[in-house]
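so i finally got all the pieces together for this one. its two components total, 961 residues if u count the protein bits. some of the lines might not be protein, just check the labels. i wanna see the whole assembly predicted at once instead of chain by chain like last time, that was a mess tbh
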Amino acid sequence: MNHDGRLLRAAVLAGIGLGLITPIVIGLWETGRAAFGILPALGQEVASLEPWQALAALPGIGTSLRLTLITGFGSTLLSLLLATGFCAAVHARMRPSAGAQMLTPFLAIPHAAMAVGLAFVLAPSGWIARMLAPLAGWDRPPDIATVHDGWGLALMIGLMVKEVPFLLLVILSALGQIPVARHMAAGRALGYGRGIVWIKIIMPQVWPLIRLPVWVVLAYALSVVDMAIILGPSTPPTLAVAVTRWFTDPDPAMILPASAGAIVQAGIVALAVALMLVAEALGKRLGRWWLRRGGRGLSAEPGLWAASAVTMALMAVGVLAMVSLVVWSLAWRWSYPQILPQSWSLKPWTGAQDGWMRALANTLLLAGATVGLSLALAIAWLEGEDRARRARAPWAEALIYLPLLIPQIGFLYGLNVGFLQIGLSGGIIAVIWAQALFVFPYVMIALSDPWRALDPRVIRVAAALGAGPGRRLWAVKLPMLIRPILTAAAIGVSVSVAQYLPTLFMGAGRIATLTTEAVTLSSGSDRRVTGVYASLQAGLPFAAYLAAFLIPAILHRNRRALTGASAP
Amino acid sequence: MKLSLVLALSLLASPALADWQQTLQAARGQTVYWNAWGGDARTNAFIAWVGDQTEARYGVRVEQAKLSDTAEAVTRVISEKAAGQDEGGSVDLIWLNGPNFLAMKDQGLLHGPFVADLPNARYLDLAPGSAASVDFTVPVDGMESPWRLARFVFTYDSARVAEPPRSMAAFVDWAAANPGRVTHPDPSNFMGATFLKQALIELTPDASVLQDPATEATFDAATAPLWDWYDALRPNLWRGGETYPANESVQQQLLNDGEVDIAMSFDPASAAAAIADGLLPDSARVFVPEGGSIGNISFVAIPYNAANAEGAEVVANFLLDPATQAHMQNIEVLGSFSVLDPARLDEAAKAAFAALPSAPALPTLADLGPTLLEPHASWMTRLTEEWTRRYVK
C-alpha cells in the first residue's frame, strides 16, 4: 500500500461522503423535520404529530396507498416472472450480445417518453383501438378506461415495458457467470423437464446475483412519479404523485402532510425490501424441501411459452409507443379513427424550435457534467481498490445502491431547503449535483464488473516493464476498458436525461430539460409538440449507446482482441 | 415648516413619473423570470414576443419558467422564505389569480403595492368593485397587475352535436341522453373547480352569499342543490365519473380524439385558436349557458424577494400598453380579450381594436352574454374539498 493509493482513496471517500451521502442525509432530515411539524418559514417551530393526522385525514389516502402497493409489487413481480420465463425459453437459442442489442432501445428510452407513447397507443381513441375500430365497428371510441384506469393497469404495463428488458439484461449477464449448459444437461439427465431445471437449479444461483437490481426496480416502481402522472390513475393518484401534488399545493400548509407522506413513501420502500428478504428466507426453506422431494412429474413448459408470448407482446407495444412518438411529431391533423395522420407537417418541429433547442442544450449540458463527474469518481474509486488490492466491503456496495433505494420524493424537498440555505438552489450546479446522486450509482455498477474482469497479467506485464501506477492507469487500463467506460457513460446519459423530480425541485423551474418539458406538455393538448420532445428525449440516450458501440469499434479496428473481449 | 410642507405636497403631487424613470433605469439589463403556466403554446409564444419587445425597448429580457401548475411558483417562494432568502429570489413575476393570489397576499409574499406606479395603469378601471380591482372578491390593493381577460366557455363539435345543453341544469338530461360523452377536469384543477362554481351560481337559491367568505352554515345551504344536481349527472359522465381529465387541455384533446363531445376553457378564443393550430376540427364552436358565465381577470404579481422587481414592473406595464393589448386580442396571436377600459382609450387605440380579424369559431362579446362574478376564493377551496370528500374514495 503506497502513499499515493491512500491519498486517492481518502479523496474518493471524501467525495462520496460529501457529494452523495450528505445531501441524502440532509434531505431526509429536513423532510423529516417538516413531517413532524417543524417548518420555520410558516412559523411552525414546535414538533407535533399534526402533519400525520392531517395526512391520515386526506381524502383518498387509503386508495393512494393501495394503488402504490398494487402497482409497485405487481409490476415488479410480474416483470421478474416474465423475464425469468423468457430467459428460460430462449436463452439457449440466443447469443447474449444479440440479446443486449435487441434490448438497448428499451433501456435507452426514458420512462417519461415511453409513457407519452404508451398513453397514445393504449388510449380508447389510441393506435390499437384505431386498428381495431373497423373490425369492431367503433365509430366512436369505446368508453373504457385503458389509461389513467382506477386499477393502475396502464401504469403497470408502462413499468413492465421498461423493467422486463432491464431485468432480462441483468439475468442474461448473471447467466454468463453460471455454467448453465452443464447444469441443464445434468438436470435433464436426471429426468427433470427444462422449465423445472430452470426453477430448481438455475434460478436459485441467479437470484443472489440479481437481488440488488430487483430491489432497485421495486423501489423505483413503488415511488415513480413521471410515468404515474402520465399513465396512472388520477383521482386519487399513487402516493408518490399525491405527495408531489401536495408539495406544490397553493396552500403552503400542505407541505407538512406532504413531508409526512414523503416519509411514508420512504418507509414503504424500506418495508418492501425487508419483505423481499423475508420472502427470500422463506423461499430458501421451502425450496430446499421441494428440491429434496425430487418430484419429476411437473412440466413448466407451457408457463415458459406463455411468459415469452406476453414478453413479446409487451415489447411490441413498446415499439409501437416509440414509433408513435415520431409519427405524432410529424403529424398535423390526426383524428380518430384514422390509423395514419390525415396531414403531415414539420411545423411541430419548426414552431417549437427555440424551446426544444434550449431544452436539448440544457439536457446535453446536464448529461455531460453528471456523466463526467460520475465517471471520474467511479474510475478513482476502482483504481483506489486496485491499488489497495482489496475487494469492496459490503458497506461500500450498499453505499452505491443507497440513492437508488431511497425514493426521490422522500428527500428532494428537504434537500432543496438545504441547498437554499447554502444559496445553491435554482441553479445549474444544484441540478447537476442532484442528478449525479442517481447517475453515479449506475455508472459505478456498470463499470465495476468489466474493470475487475480486466486480465491482471496485462497490468503485471506493464508493471514489470517499469510503468508506475499512473501510467498503468492511463496507458493500459483506460484504453483497454474504453468500451465498458463508454457503455457506462451511455447508461449515465440515459439516467441523466430521464431525471424528472431532481430537475424540477432543484432547478426552481428555470432549468427546462427535454424530460421536464415532455412531462409538462403531456398534460397539454398538443401531442405533436409532446412528440417532438419525447422523440428527442428517447433519441439522445440512443445516440449515446450508438456512440459507445461505434467509437471503440473505430478506435480498435485493428486490434481484434479488444473489440469485444472486455465487454460484459 | 412651511418649506417642508411644500416639499411634501410636491412629492405627493407627481412622484410617479420621476420614480418611473428610476425604475426604467434600474430595470435596464435585468432578466425577468416570469413564472407562468406553460401548457398553452400560443401563450408561451406571446410571452416570448413580450420578451423580444421589452428587450428592444427597455433592455429587459424575459425568461418564461414554464409551470405545469402555478402553485409550483408559490411553493418556491415559500421555500425561499423558509431558507431566509429574503432578496435575490428566483421568481420575478408570476401569472396568477384566485387562491394562489390570496395565499401569497395573506402570507406577505408579495411586492407592492405597485400597480398605481405603472404609467399604463391609467387605461384601467380601478374603481372599487371593478373587475380589475378584485380577484375572486379579494381586493387587489395594487399587489397584482391585470393582463388578460378570462371568460368561462364550453367548446363542442358542431358536426357531432346538434344541440348542446343550454344551461347547467340541462347538463343532467343531456348526459342521460348521451352517456359517457361529457366530463369536466378534475376539480383539484381550477378549470374543474370553475365548472362546479358555474353550476353553483346557477343552482344556488341566493347567489349573493357567494360574494362573502363561505362559512359552515352558508356553504351547506348554498351547495345542497349543487350536490343533488351532481349526483344525478355523475353516473352519465365519461368513464362513469370514476376518473377525470387532469386539466382543460387534456379535455380538449379528448374532444379532438372524439372521446367526449364537450370541452371547456377560460378563453373564448381558444376554439378558434385550436382550429387554426390543427388541434380541433374545423366544426368546433363555442357556447355559454343562457344566464351567462363566470369571468375573471388574469394578473401578474411580483414576489417580495424578487431579484429583478424593477424589470418585472416594466414587463407588467408593457402588458397594459394598448398596442400590446390589441396585439394580444388578435385571434392570430392569442385572442384573449383586453383588460383595458374601452372608455379610457384614445381614438388610435380604439381603431386598432376595431381592425382586429375575426374567425367563424370566435364568439363576439354579445354571444358571450353577461359576465358572472367569481365567488369569494374560500368557496372554491371548500367546493374542491367537499367534492373530494364526497367522490374520491
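Confidence is low (pLDDT under 50) at residues 5-14 of chain B.
The two ends of chain B are 71 Å apart (CA to CA).
anyway lmk what u think
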